Amino acid sequence: MDLKYVEILAKKSKDGDNLSKENLIEEFRPFIRNLSRKTFIHGYDKNDIENECYKNLFKCLNSYDLEKHRFVAYATNGIKNNLNDLIRKTKNRDNSEGSCALTLSDNLEDALPSNEPNLEDMLCNECDLDLLKYAIKKLTKEEQELIDFIFFKNNTIRLYSSLKNMCYSTAAKRKMEVLKKINKIFSSFNEICVN
């Protein structure tokens, strides 16, 4: 692409010369074809993307100021930015259109989320909570304090280690040992339930 020639075409096109506009399209055709081949936009085929690029080329031509910068850089950036905006817009629309969209069928109540809590989930969560309380009661006072400090009060191991005047690695190791102990209690409870 000859930059000086494109600048001349842009100036003539701005003045209303239709032949210059056609020549400008021919100059940008390889760039637009290459860009549209590399770009995927949901709901657009290659020709749609090319047409969007040409539309944006003329939009850039209308808003172009001859004294400020070169037209080639201005137009290529404008075309790329327009495609990025299209990608962003279609990405947000993807979930409500196309094959992922909700279809009306006999089992619609299974597909729609319910605001009512699921009884099975509530019972499972309650059982898990009871089992966790039981497992924590089986721990020593120091282990219970560690679990409470890190998991229930959302503090870090580093803070725990500095408050207890111990090495960070020792506190981390202690935390892992306590979690293994709780896991062992859970596993033994599951074995009892299965048998």
Q: Would you give an account of this structure?
A:
By secondary structure, this protein is mostly helical. It contains nine helices and no strands. The chain has two domains: 3-99, Rna Polymerase Sigma Factor, Chain: A (Orthogonal Bundle); 119-194, Up-down Bundle (Butyryl-CoA Dehydrogenase, subunit A, domain 3), CATH 1.20.140.160. The radius of gyration is 32 Å and the shape is elongated. This is Sigma-70 family RNA polymerase sigma factor.
Any descriptors?
Butyryl-CoA Dehydrogenase, subunit A, domain 3; 73% helix; mainly alpha; DNA-binding; elongated; 195 residues; Rna Polymerase Sigma Factor, Chain: A
Task: Give a short synopsis of this structure.
The protein is mostly helical.
Number of helices: 9
Main structural class: mainly alpha
Radius of gyration: 32 Å
Order of helices and strands: HHHHHHHHH
Arithmetic mean of pLDDT: 83
Strand content: under 5%
Range of helix content: over 70%
The backbone outline, from C-alpha atoms, is elongated
Could you state the CATH homologous superfamily of the largest domain? RNA polymerase sigma factor, region 2, helix turn helix motif
GO molecular function: DNA binding; sigma factor activity
InterPro entries: RNA_pol_sigma-70_dom, RNA_pol_sigma70_r2, RNA_pol_sigma_r2
Keywords: DNA-binding, Sigma factor, Transcription, Transcription regulation
Domain RNA polymerase sigma-70 region: 24-91
